[in-house]
Structures are given as C-alpha cells and as structure tokens.
Prior knowledge:
Largest sheet: 5 strands, antiparallel
Number of domains: 2
Strand content: 15-25%
Radius of gyration: 31 Å
Strand order of the largest sheet: 8-7-6-5-9
Amino acid sequence: MDIAERRAMQEFQNRVYPDLKRKIDDAAGFAVAMEVNWESLAVPNEADIYHEFWTKIYFEPLIEAFRSLCADDVGKEALKHSLTKIEILNSGERFDENAYAFEGGVLRIDHKLSNVDWVQLRVDAIVSLLRPPTPQAPPRREVKINIHESMKEILKRHEGKQVRIHLKTGSELEGNLTEVGDEVLHLTELSGMEYYDAIVRIASISAVILRAKR
C-alpha cells in the first residue's frame, strides 16, 4: 500500500466512516458490531475512488436495508436477536448478490470494487438474507367423510375430538365430543362455558364442523 492509498484509507476511517456507522446503528436500533478489513478494501492504484466506492458498495446498502427491516420496534427487535456481527472485506472474487452470506448471526460482505451504482441490488440481497422467515401455515388434516354415512356414524368416528355443532334451532355448541350414543351425544369443555357439559339429541343436529388443521 503506497502513501496515497494509506492517506485515503485513513481519511475515510476518520472522517467518513463514523457518520456511516452512526447511521447504521440508528437504522438498526442498536449498536451493530462491525469488523472491517480495511487493508483488503484498499485496492492498489484506486485511492481516488475509495470514498465513493466504499460508501456505495459496503455501507449505504446496510443503512437502507436496516431502514427497511427495522421500520418498527418489532423489526428492530428481530434484527437485534438474529444479527451479532457484520464482517466487511474484499477478496476480489465476489460481487453483487453473491457477495453476501449470513450464518451463525454473522453477516459477511465480501464485495470487490465493481458495479458501484447497483446500490438497490445490494440492499435487496441484504434484506433477503436478514428478513425473518414467514410462518408456515399448519398442515391440513384430511377429513374423510362418506356421504352415505349417518350423522351418528360420522360423529362416532370423531369421538375424542373438538367439534362445532349447529342445531336445527339455529344455536351452536363447540366442545370435546366425548361420547356418542344411539340417540344423544356428550359434549364436554364447551367453548365459553368450560365448566359445563351438554347432552345433545343427534336428531336435532343440522351440521357438524370438523377441524381441518392440526
């Protein structure tokens, strides 16, 4: 590293980086641990572009990505829980979305000095890596019904399960189908009336709703 490169690096570290780090922390909502391999960023014979390229390649995308991820307290808490450190370096081998990896709480940015103005692409890559996964819907449980079965037979097969019963009077009961007899059934732990049971005439039932998700 020659004297021009060292001066450019030190000027960035002392005059530019502190403000960028403050913006990163403000966007994230906490002080983010960062480890920057400055020597690897200081590409030979490119001292005049350090300021612009380092800012747009390594730091602006972080600021904008964190602003997107941490728009509210929930997002800030999620990022704080998942991100422990950011490592920034330039091996000279990677760029754009391939420059990012997130493992064990560490976001690793290994980007060469190229495609300086593709800031949004880098923002999107960071957001994609750090965004919490969308909760998966519970798997459906297949409810097998034989349309030729009687109401009693259907109820009998669902003893011990939670059911909702519509009565011909228009009222509704939900509870644990404990036992099914010849003419009546026994519901326990009624929804909204947990301390009560119900004895229901099977002939008075117009419909039974069965849970289709586990």
